[in-house]
Design a protein that fits this description.
By secondary structure, this protein is mainly α. It contains 6 helices and no strands.
Length: 147
């Protein structure tokens, strides 16, 4: 018995995003989330966007944990935004938000909605994801690796 193979033709249409939708989605998420994080740092340090009291107030210089947390928001958030040293910066952001959640929000109530900590919880988990998965597309870390 003989078998003959039928010719197979596969038409593949290349798109500019072939093989990269995950990297693009991760990169876009990194940029948006870190931008919002940096805005919180600007609010705490400089009273931007209405400040911490909606009247332009900022945190006291070198106060623990407020000033240091705002510095992490600003500096580490900017690193994540640019995709520079993304993994360690994102893990620092995640840890800062987990600390904030468990020391500020969780004592008020067990779950995030009643204790007002949903933003802190989301920031902690999203930055943990970025710290583990990497920066995604359009990151300075990618340029550093090519050299």
């Amino acid at each position: 018995m003989t078998t003959t193979a039928l010719p197979t033709t596969t038409s593949v249409t290349a798109t500019p995003f072939d093989g990269k939708p995950q990297a693009l989605a991760l990169g876009a998420t990194r940029v948006v989330v870190s931008f919002l994080f940096v805005c919180h740092g600007l609010m705490g340090l400089f009273g931007a966007f209405g400040g911490i009291d909606t009247m332009g107030g900022s945190v006291e210089l070198f106060s623990w944990p407020d000033w240091w947390g705002s510095m992490i928001h600003l500096v580490a958030g900017a690193f994540v935004f640019a995709g520079f040293l993304t993994r360690p910066a994102a893990l620092l952001c995640s840890g800062a938000m987990a600390y904030g959640y468990f020391t500020v929000h969780q004592p008020l109530a067990l779950l995030p909605l009643p204790n007002g900590g949903e933003a802190a919880a989301l920031f902690a988990w999203i930055f943990l994801l970025i710290g583990i998965a990497g920066p995604g597309a359009f990151a300075l870390d990618k340029l550093r690796r090519r050299r």
